[in-house]
Amino acid sequence: MGDIVFHNTLGGQNQPFVPLHPGQVRMYTCGPTVYDFAHIGNFRTFVFQDILRRFLRSRGFEVIQVANFTDVDDRIIAKAAEAKLKIRDYTDKYIEAFLADQRVLGIEKPEYTVRATDHIEDMVRLIERLTAKGFTYVSDGSIYFRISQFHDYGKLTNVDTSGIRAGARVDVDRYDKADARDFALWKAPKPGEFFWETRIGPGRPGWHIECSAMSMKYLGDTLDIHSGGVDLAFPHHENEIAQSEAATGKQFVRYWLHAEHLLVDSQKMSKSLGNFYTLRDLLEKGNKPSTLRFLLASVPYRRQLNFTEESLQQAASSVERLRNFAVRLNTSKFPEGKSAITESAERAREGFERGLEDDLNTAQALAAVFDLIREANVAMDQGKFRQGDVVPVGKVLESFDAIFAVLQDHDDEKLRSVGVETRGTALSNEKIEELIAARQAARKARDFAKADRIRVELADQGIILEDSKDGIVRWKRK
Ligand SMILES: [Zn+2]
Asked: Is 239 in contact with 37 (CB distance < 8 Å)?
């Protein structure tokens, strides 16, 4: 296996990945702001981060990932007040929904999942450190970061700060490069607004200080990887760098990885265009969890992903092809020996790894796997596939699934777990196997009426049986 190369937004170059502590990767991923259900564009980034951590682990690294919930910001405060709820009560519901959505998409749980509102003291302490070093000032009770004091300001996204008037401030958490100014670390409460009483005065944290405080608390002053959607690079990540490096005097993050946007039918997703989808919207429309995960994972993260009906269909049929092949491989009997497929499998494994090493080029990695499947299917059709090829080919599927995680069919269970009616069967894999065994037993006992009843019962539930010549029954869901 070769070197891992990542595209580092800091510097804009591809760089070999070498973690600071050998064998261990410390990684922070900006999580959702929990004022609503997460949408499919958000999940593109979260699936990419899952692919990243699974890949690093497959290469033997210990991964320590911290992901946060932004459970206090301008929008949350406004929405909670509107709903006449405490912030915590308002956000609980969306945190729970997010965790459920994550499971549906097969996203592994990070080592630490942390809430901003549990870390107010850490943020206050960090702001105090910045104040002690002269990076802050107070205006109308709010505390601002003085960007002219931090000479590296703008190094991540190349912001030109030369035209910025000293003391010009921005109060909102989200703004454009054109509005680059001193930003709020701590915001004084407006009348009637929720606040924390602290040593630095009453108020609440700005969005950016949350991530600086939480990432350094769990991962130390210098992180290996920090990632998020490309829209977070400015101002959020730029400001995180300023806060963290001003406080510690050390490099904050060594590799910055940013996932590109997801478009729907070539357009930016927006509620006004009617092309805005939460994960649940797409599941309600009849899409399987595995289809969505596969689609989100299959486009390399630095390419825009155009989400269309056609791409959904392609993803669904790709997953089906993979699953059918795995069943064929594992349930057929082949003549003894080995064929040229064993070498092809070795090449496919190398191709798969080479793709992922190259800045997580998932498309290239998948191409290697599908080439092998095509070749193996032809060999099986022609009777050339041998029993000795099963293990090497199986290993390719195993490597694939350690990263992509779509081979096992848990779609219906997952849909039920988030309360989505399943169109097809409600039967679990175990129940299906049980019914097939009962049908086999009935046939053996020459009770063909019963065997047929079971077949029809399964068909009613959307399960299709294929009896093969060697007496093995394969099944699939319609
Ligand atoms: Zn963040």
From this structure: no
Query: 154: alpha, beta or left, given left = phi > 0 and alpha = psi -120 to 50?
Result: left
* Residue 381 tokens, joined: 């059709």
28 vs 373: CA distance, rounded Å: 36
Residue with tokens 């009962």: 438
pLDDT digits (tens, 9 = 90+) for 117-152: 999 999 999 999 999 999 999 999 999 999 999 999
Quick: pLDDT tens for 403-454.
999 999 999 999 999 999 775 556 777 788 888 988 988 988 898 888 888 8
Predicted structure pTM score:
0.89
Ligand 1: centre distance to CA 232 (Å): 8
Residue 340's pLDDT is what?
Answer: 97
Residue 206 CA to ligand 1 center (angstroms) comes to 11
Q: Report d(CA 331, CA 473) in Å as an integer.
A: 8
Q: How close is the Cα of 11 to the center of ligand 1, in Å?
A: 20
Q: Sorting pLDDT into bands at 50, 70 and 90, what band is 161?
A: confident
Q: Which residue has the tokens 């290239």?
A: 364
Side-by-side strand order, sheet with 223-229? 112-115, 62-69, 24-29, 223-229, 253-259
| Ligand 1 centroid to residue 15 C-alpha, Å | 23
Give me ligand 1 centre to Cα 290, in Å.
Answer: 28
Pairwise CA distance, residues 413 & 409, whole Å: 9
